[in-house]
Amino acid sequence: MSAKGVRHDASRFLRTTGQHATIDADPLVPGSYILSIGGAEQSHVNLAHPDEIFYEYLRRIGHVVDLVAEPAAPISALHLGAGALTLARYIQATRPGSVQHAVELERELLDFVLQKLPMPEGTHLTTHIADAREALAALPAGLGFDVVILDIFSGPDAPPHIACREFYEEAARRLAPGGVLIINVGDEPALTLVRSQVAALRQAMPDAAAVAEAGMFEGRYPGNIILVGTQAPWPADWSRELLARGPHPAAVLSGVELDKISD
Length: 263
What we know:
Strand content: 25-35%
Helix content: 25-40%
Distance between the termini: 46 Å
Number of strands: 12
Low-confidence stretches: none
């Protein structure tokens, strides 16, 4: 039970942040659960259908992951920021046999999630309790990932040792040939953080693109923009695919179009 007397299905105190994490059944989506931290919703998990992603920005990331290899082919994935492991569950559901690693700073959070919302049987997932940059450096040298997904920071709270060109360069060195770096950036209407991260990503990788709800690029309201770094020129067919898959209305900026949100 929280300090306000609200009863939750499950609760755990997180020592690193001093907040409570809670997991509650979603009354609107059978078989689904909501992870909240400090009273704010953080993740949504559909245990019955892990290939169905509720949050819009995570669906967009899932659609990028869909394009990195042939449908249903196993991939290797590194998740920097674990949350409720929604994307790890999606990859296991859509690409069985994939090899995945997840990094989370908060030990109690990862234990809590895995205890209350266990991964599907057959999932090959290795977890790491560490700072994302430290974990990246400590991974075995031979590991190369088809996707590295960063979902850690938003707005002015972005850790400077992660929201920078040097970190993206380190992450790029962990990619397998043809692999992509995917970054979720939550930001305010001015897009100050997004602009700085587009510039950093462009310095770290050969090409980049940004994917979001169309209004996000007009600075109408706070929200999430997905940045994707590639090791070759951004494929035009990826833009067409991502626009078609949505969620709608969608926009994909690459090349000179990306200049308008780059420092």
